[in-house]
């Protein structure tokens, strides 16, 4: 199609509204729920202007960009309303449009009112896509949107003309990190450090961060490990004309696995509980004053009802302020403590995990956030904990978990694996231990290099995380050795699914020549040339019902793995239920 024909098609699109909105999901990475949708626009199908790059590039050249943007915005809002999509709607707006004559103040709000939509669910996504955008983004226009109740986002942080300067000046509600820094982040330490730094800035500025361009599971896992909570990209969902996105199954599965692990392993708030003086609801304020004098370090005193259940606290500074006023003590010292009761206090059952308590604390309103945590058992008062102790213990646990995790896959290492086996033995659970190991991995590493070898190990880890049900424990011993502790009776089906997927995926790491030969030729340490077939995965499985400790389980699992490897190919071997003979040196998982 000639340039004249394309220009004519553009005019036809603008005059007849021939724009089709597409929507790409933005997910909450912590639980798999939809956070919102970004609206993207397409021209007529099977035309030269169907793709957004061609469409918007021509509109820019023909000086019709702003007219096109306004049409796309109107179409996107109408379609979003018609489809009744979940979450927020992200609308792309070029920086220069806000100051242009075509930009009509109140147009977007008018469309929303007509459709019955709430402007709090609309995010104006500002981008510096075009050469003249850097002439200056009108701060007044941004504030105009914000005052009307819209949220403002900066798109493509890390590219463009002003990036961090724009962030500083506009103070947006949301920042989207450009896909350049997301792609390959699992293999690039510099990109990881960049994203960590941006996350730190965002947290200090109370700004929401979204990672764009997530294209594979490894990138997603790395972003979750860093602490990114929102993301979009082809791995999570491609733009589509008729979206039906709900929860994302992989994210939901990982959230369930984290929740199960925390439930099984995390310490409870009981560890924070300290004996604390308390008062009954009919106690007098003078008694509270005497209690504070007797305990100088006491910040708040729990107040209990007749059933020994906490109903609130008396805080030292509030009582001091009351008694410091003229005639304050004389007027109030003989009145019940309920006259000064504060009920904005966190009351938690003693068996609740520290992770859950942390979530409760962070969900509190900032102006009601207090230091004390009242601990109860079946509603009855036990004692109090403090916010600083909670934060200290959670930090210690995070450092411990990081220390015991494998750096390549971020999966739990030897120590957590041993603990999990020991825990299940102690509780007499019915479980299976599967030991995964690659056949002919060293020759593959020697032939293709360590970078490709690491990528294969990451593939195995990703497949296990994807295909193993969330209530099972996954660990990475090191190198190409993985362990799954199954509580499921269909463990064999899950293992077979991993083998089938691996047999297909691993072929992507070979060249056409090596695939045609069925493997690679390498020399051993004696100088002899040997042939090694395409990588396969051996799985040795044990059902350790009669084992007394994790050492015995480790010995059985090692024997099962050895049998699986001797069989060759992608194979599962279930070891007979035997107790290994005690040895002076016991193999470890």
Automatic annotation (TrEMBL):
Boundaries of every CBS domain copy: 272-331
Domain EAL: 3-253
SMART domains documented for this protein: EAL, GGDEF
Matches recorded under SUPFAM superfamilies: CBS-domain pair, EAL domain-like, Nucleotide cyclase
GO molecular function, one term: cyclic-guanylate-specific phosphodiesterase activity
InterPro entries listed in its UniProt record: CBS_dom, CBS_dom_sf, Cyclic-di-GMP_PDE-like, EAL_dom, EAL_sf, GGDEF_dom, Nucleotide_cyclase, Rev_trsase/Diguanyl_cyclase
Ranges for domain GGDEF: 429-577
Keyword vocabulary terms for this entry: CBS domain
NCBIfam families for the chain: GGDEF (TIGR00254)
Stated name of the protein: Diguanylate cyclase/phosphodiesterase
């Amino acid at each position: 199609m000639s340039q004249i024909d394309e220009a004519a098609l553009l005019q036809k699109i603008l005059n007849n509204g021939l724009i089709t909105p597409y929507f790409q999901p933005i997910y909450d990475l912590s639980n798999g729920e939809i956070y919102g949708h970004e609206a993207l626009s397409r021209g007529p199908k099977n035309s030269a202007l169907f793709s957004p790059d061609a469409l918007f590039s021509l509109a820019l050249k023909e000086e019709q960009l702003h007219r096109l943007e306004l049409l796309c915005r109107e179409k996107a809002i109408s379609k979003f309303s018609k489809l009744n999509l979940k979450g927020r709607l992200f609308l792309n707006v070029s920086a220069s449009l806000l100051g242009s004559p075509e930009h009509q103040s109140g147009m977007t709000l008018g469309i929303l009112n007509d459709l019955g939509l709430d402007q709090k669910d609309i995010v104006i996504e500002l981008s510096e896509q075009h050469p003249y955008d850097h002439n200056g983004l009108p701060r007044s226009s941004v504030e105009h949107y914000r005052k009307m109740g819209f949220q403002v986002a900066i798109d493509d942080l890390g590219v463009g003309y002003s990036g961090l300067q724009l962030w500083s000046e506009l103070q947006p509600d949301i920042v989207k990190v450009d896909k350049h820094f997301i792609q390959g982040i699992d293999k690039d330490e510099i990109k990881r450090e960049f994203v960590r730094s941006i996350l730190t800035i965002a947290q200090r500025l109370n700004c929401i961060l979204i990672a764009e361009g997530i294209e594979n599971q490894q990138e997603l896992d790395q972003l979750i490990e860093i602490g990114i909570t929102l993301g979009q990209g082809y791995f999570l969902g491609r733009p589509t004309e008729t979206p039906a996105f709900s929860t994302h199954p992989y994210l939901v599965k990982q959230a369930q696995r984290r929740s199960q692990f925390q439930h099984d392993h995390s310490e409870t708030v009981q560890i924070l509980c300290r004996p604390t003086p308390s008062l009954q609801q009919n106690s007098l304020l003078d008694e509270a004053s005497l209690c504070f004098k007797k305990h100088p370090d006491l910040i708040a005193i729990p107040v209990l009802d007749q059933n020994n259940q906490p109903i609130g606290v008396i805080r030292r500074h509030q009582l001091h302020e009351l008694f410091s006023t003229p005639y304050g003590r004389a007027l109030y010292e003989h009145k019940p403590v309920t006259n000064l009761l504060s009920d904005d206090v966190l009351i938690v059952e003693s068996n609740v995990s520290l992770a859950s308590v942390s979530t409760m604390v962070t969900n509190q309103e900032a102006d009601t956030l207090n230091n004390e945590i009242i601990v109860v058992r079946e509603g009855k008062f036990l004692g109090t904990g403090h916010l600083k102790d909670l934060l200290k213990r959670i930090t210690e646990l995070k450092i411990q978990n990081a220390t015991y995790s494998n750096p390549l896959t971020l999966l739990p290492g030897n120590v957590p694996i041993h603990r999990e086996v020991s825990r299940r033995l102690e509780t007499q659970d019915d479980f299976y231990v599967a030991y995964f190991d690659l056949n002919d991995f060293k020759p593959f590493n020697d032939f293709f290099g360590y970078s490709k070898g690491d990528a294969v190990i990451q593939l195995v880890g990703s497949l296990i995380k994807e295909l193993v049900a969330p209530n099972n424990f996954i660990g990475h011993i090191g190198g190409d050795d993985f362990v799954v502790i199954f509580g499921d009776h269909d463990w064999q089906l899950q293992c077979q699914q991993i083998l089938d997927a691996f047999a297909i995926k691993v072929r992507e790491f070979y060249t056409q020549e090596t695939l045609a030969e069925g493997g690679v030729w390498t020399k051993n340490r004696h100088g002899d040339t040997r042939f090694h077939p395409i990588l396969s995965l051996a799985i040795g499985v044990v059902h350790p019902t009669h084992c007394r400790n994790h050492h015995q389980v480790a010995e059985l699992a090692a024997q099962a793995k050895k049998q699986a490897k001797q069989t060759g190919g992608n194979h599962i071997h279930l070891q007979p239920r035997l107790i290994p003979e005690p040895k002076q040196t016991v193999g470890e998982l």
